[in-house]
Amino acid sequence: MEHVPPPAEELARLDRELAELDARRAQLLTRRAWLLGALRPPAPTAAPGWNPSAWGAPPPGRPGAPAQPWGYVPKQPSAPRSAQNVLLTLGGLLLTVAAVAFTLVSWGSMGIGGRSAVLAAVTLGALIAPAVLLRRGLAATAEALAALALVLTLLDVHAVAAPDTDGLGFTAVASAVLAVLWTAYGLALGKLRLPLPAAVVLAQWPLLFWAWAAGAPALVVGWALLATAVLDGVIALWGKGPGVRVTACVGGSAMGFSALMVGLALSATASGPLGAVAPGALLLAAAAAALAGAWRAPKGFARTGGVVAGLAAVAAVGGVPAAALSDGWRVLAYLLCGLALAGVVRAGLPRDAARGVLAASGVVVAGALVWALPSLAAVLLGPVTLLSDVWAGSPEGFRSALGSTLPWSEPAAAPVVLALVAGLLGSAYRWWPSVVRIAAPLAAPRTADTGTPGAGVPEAPGAVGAAAPWPGWSGWSGTGTGAGAGARRRPSAATLREVVGAGAVALGWGAFLLAGALLDVPYAVAVAGETALVGGLLVLAVRGAGSGRGASAVPVTALVGAVSGAVSVGLLSLASEAAAYAVFGALAVLFAGAAVRVGAEVPRAVFAVASVVWSTVLTGFAGRSLDLDPHEAAPLVLLVPALTVLLGARLRRHPVALPVELTGALGALVAVGLAVSDAPFLALVLALCGVLAAGTAVRPERRPVAGCLAAALFVLATWVRLAASEVSFPEAYTLPVTVPALVVGVARRRRDPEASSWTAYGPGLAATLLPSLAVAWTDTDWLRPLLLGVAALVITLLGARYRLQALLVLGGVVLGLDGLHELAPYVAQVAGALPRWLPPALAGLLLLVVGATYEQRLRDARRLREALGRMR
What whole-number distance in Å separates Cα of residue 696 and Cα of residue 700? Predict the structure, then answer.
């Protein structure tokens, strides 16, 4: 039966394929143009001064070079021009330094008239000279003299300043006059690039210095900054030349940001709603100015202007009610205003500006959520403090169980914020097609020809992806003028819907947790409520994972929330014995039921593993309730690993079997850790673990690993038991085990010659050789090391004779260690008699020899490895 995707998914797939075709076509056209340019015959040699572009002919190209556009004129070498610029810059700098030195130092005896006459004459000459130089084509020299004239005009202002003049007021007037003069000068000499940007820089200061000189309050200073920013915006939109526009953009950004900071500070510190009205008016004016600039600005600047306008509007409108609220509720006023910005989709704004305003709305919502996160983290992580005093008694309220010093009056609105955003996201998830249709005006791409929205956009009735609220929701979108140029993958409408649903689930869960903490509900109610919440998340995860749509964000978020909530409520229940049993029992049952009901393999494995973990914790609680020491409770903890072995035998090759068995093995490891403090119990626990591993090894698919593990655990249990009983002759206990084990191994090899020697003989030999070696290292007599060495030698020779890897390796290792033990006293005596410099010298010589014959030693090691690998 063929799967028919929904219309939105099918449309997204078609858009992706069409975008790929367009991108490939653009690549082929580019390659074709390059080949045509490479094959074009070279143009005939032109006469001096002849410009082929004047006649519409393409420039001559060399073979292999990319084709150049029509009218292209190769640039002339720039070395002479660069040298000229350096010389002119140095000359102008020296003249400027000389003028400054003369003004400040050399004419102290001259009066105001003399100063004015000298500077006026010099300045007038510096202003007239660029006009003459421009008529003769000396633009660089004219620029240098114009820079000198700019400095001279500043010195003129400084020279004519009266000592008793107000500094700030005079600076405001002087900067305004100089800005006007340099604007007129720059417009008169249009070829000069310096005067107009300098006039823009000077225009930044008149209003600001005037406000300071008048002793105006901060609000008036903010209006002065805003007026300057508006002037900069006008210049940036209609100014002449890129230098003027860039300078105006930088100045406007700085002044506008300063005005916004002034308004925001005054609004945040207002004593009441009436006090926040005036700063709000300043912020609203800034928002209107930013939105007006975004209306005419290019794409990137329009979005930035929309963001600034949206944030300023939220600060202006939200600041008035926030001034009447307590600190814990102010964020709610700003959040409501930020959510109201979503109505921009119906306001008829330009697309890029509207996107910026929507981005500002998202920034406000994100800021409110970040403000609520510390409180949520305190609720989730606060129960960790109960680990230090388990079952100390049920606290009176939820907050006392958290053990947090968080001032709960400050985040009073946190659950309301989370619930509000979760409700809106949930509504958007539920009525997603309506949301898409409302936001459709913001998704219409602009055509490369007309720049009008909606031109050439195919529409499919009822298709969700056709009216996606962001560009590229339907799969692929291209940027640039060419079809498919710059195509890149963006999330589809279905993916964004899943993200919205996941956000609703996560925030709703956090709102419930925070509400219980802020209301300080009784401890029993908090524990029961969090457990029920975990159950609800499990239901959502099971239903979402069983929908057949593959992995999606909503069930994954519910799964993560269920596991996190289970850990949190489990820690919370540690305050009371009854609560601990009830919570962990309920969690084990809930997760086991979810594992049975869910259809997907990965969630089923996660649920099953979590159920095993909760059950293991329950067995630990049972040992504590029985007043057992940790080592006495260790065998009780092995009940859950035993059940996982039986469950694995029932599931066999099911994908969930392996995670469940591994989790049970971790529980067995916990039991071993509990029994470490008591050697007899440790031997018992190791033996029980060996029994469980042997039971697992009955299954053919687990035999290679579980069989070796069972043998190792039995041998280790034997060693520990012998050590705990202070047995000095372990051979009396190990040999009766070794002999029948070797007999069984011989029978196994006769029945199956391909069986590994490690499986047949390894456990039996290790049961005697290794304990004997351990005792021989502490034995001062010579008999046991001698007998052990002889036995190891015989085993090594048998392994080499019959090519048995287990015998060769075990016998060789034991023989080497036994010989080292016997030679150690003599080696120590020899080392004590040798000079101290000799061992390092011998070690260095050995390293040199090994390094010189490294390749040969490497080949020998490879041959040895291959020889061992060929053994059984």
Answer: 9
Phi, psi (degrees; rounded to nearest 5) at 99:
-65, -40
504 closest CA partner among 432, 603, 592: 432
Structure tokens at 615: 């059950």
The C-alpha atoms of residue 22 and residue 482 are separated, in whole angstroms, by 9
Cα distance between residue 150 and residue 671, in whole Å: 85
Which burial class, exposed, middle or buried, applies to 127 when counting CB atoms under 10 A from its CB (0-12, 13-18, 19+)? buried
Q: Nearest CA to 321 among 371, 357, 272?
A: 272
Residue 471: predicted pLDDT = 34
686 closest CA partner among 714, 648, 658? 714
| CA-to-CA dists, residue 797 to 17, 248, 800, 805, angstroms | 70, 92, 5, 11
What b/e readout covers 530-559, taking b as 16+ CB neighbours within 10 angstroms?
Answer: bbebbbbbbbbbbebbeeeeeebbbbbbbb
At 351, which helix (H) or strand (E)?
Answer: helix 351-381
Q: pLDDT tens for residues 79-125?
A: 344 444 444 454 555 555 555 555 544 445 445 555 555 555 666 66
Question: CA 441, 447, 452: angle at the middle one, nearest 5?
Answer: 50
3-class SS letters over 479-506: CCCCCCCCCEECCCHHHHHHHHHHHHHH
Which amino acid would we find at residue 32?
A: R
E-assigned strand segments in 72-201: none
Angle between the 523-545 and 493-519 helix axes, to the nearest 10 degrees? 170
CA Rg value for the chain: 42
Closest CA to 6 of 499, 547, 601: 547
Q: Are 682 and 673 in contact (CB under 8 A)?
A: no
Burial class (CB in 10 A: 0-12, 13-18, 19+), 463: buried
**Residue 393 C-alpha from the chain's centroid:** 41
Helix (H) or strand (E) holding 260: helix 242-268
Tokens, residue 436: 């898409």
Length of the chain: 872
How far apart are the C-alpha atoms of 585 and 609, rounded to whole Å?
15
Cα separations in angstroms, 277 against 216, 219, 283, 333:
18, 11, 10, 15
Contact 761, 745 (CB under 8 A): yes
836 φ/ψ angles, rounded to the nearest 5 degrees: -70, -25
Tell me the pLDDT tens digit for each residue of 827-871. Answer: 666 666 666 656 666 676 666 666 667 667 677 778 877 877 777
- Using alpha carbons, list the distances in angstroms from residue 775 to 134, 232, 389, 771, 806: 104, 90, 43, 6, 22
